[in-house]
Every structure is written in C-alpha cells, then in structure tokens.
Please model this.
Amino acid sequence: GVYLYSYTGTIYIANNEFYGNSATHYGGGVYAHLFSGIIRLINNTFVSNSAFEYYGGGAFVRVDEEFGTRVAPGHQVRISIYNNIFWQNIAHAGGNDGDDLYIDSDGDRDDRPPEIELHNNNFSGNANFAGGKSEDLYIRRVDYGYKQSGNIQADPKFVGVADFRLKEGSPCIDAGRNDAPVLPMLPKTDRDGKPRINGRAVDMGAYEF
Model:
C-alpha cells in the first residue's frame, strides 16, 4: 500500500484506509523505515492486507537508531502507534510473524531499541500486548522504553464488507486516546472530513462514528 523510507525526520501516517494490499516480503499495508527519527501511525484502518513471505501483513515498522538519540530539539527516536484498527491481516512467515503489525525496533541489531508507544489500538484475536511476541503483534524488543495501554482485541463491527466506518455498538467508538501524540497533534477531522472527536473520546480507525 505504502512504502516510506527516510534517513531521518518524521514519518506521519494518519486517517488512511489500507485494504487488500499485498507485499512479497514485508508490510502489505504499510512499510515504514527510518534510520533515525520518529514514526507515527495514528487513526488508520488496516484490513485484509498481506505479506506473502515474511512479516507484517498490516504494517511493518522499522527504526535503526536507538532511544535517546536526538534528531531535533525536543524530538527523540520513537515509534508511536495510536488509535488504529488492525483487522484480519496476514503474514506468511509462520509463528509469531506479526499478522497485523510487526515492529522491528532494533533494526541495526545493536541491542539499543528506540522508545515504543502502543496505545488504544484494536487488533485481531492473537496479540500479546505485554510481551509483544505473538501471531498478530510482534515487537522485536520490549525491554527498553516500551509503553502500552488501552489496546483491545474485538470485532470492530464495520458497516459493511468493504465499508470500514463503525456501526453503533462498535467497541472502537470512544475508545481512542485524545492526546495521540502531542507532536503532531491528533487529526482535526476524520477520513470523511468530519470532526475527529464526537463524544467523550476519539474513535479508533480512520472514521469517526
């Protein structure tokens, strides 16, 4: 769906719908790779994407440099993933291959991973949020600077087979995090151009109910 690589800076992907994309190796929906900088996935919907041979059917995210490296005033090397829906994506490496999301948080294998923020996302049914070693969610290193909260595993209750707006009663309604994250701010509108927060909290995914 999207391939993004930069030596440094910020990769920011928000309010997108990734459906039915595929890649031969990594990241059917999104492949995002930074040597040193910040990767942010905010309020996206990933459905039925696939990686045919390796990892990250929905998204594959890689940062090479370590936590604490400053790339700009106030910025550090970081992976921030907030308010997304990952649903029924698949990778074909077998075992813990990150069907929905694979985070290669020590890309250069120097044993110094970056900070990872994983908050208020909805995954398919086999995601280990604490340890990060599971079929739907795989994080290479969670032993330094890893924070997670508010993540769920539930049927998002989409309107239709290829309409990924949320139906009434969806567990993704009002289940996001409004401060996701400070720089850049939460999108002001959703994919349809409607106000992003309609209720007590932002919804998960690309569309606000």
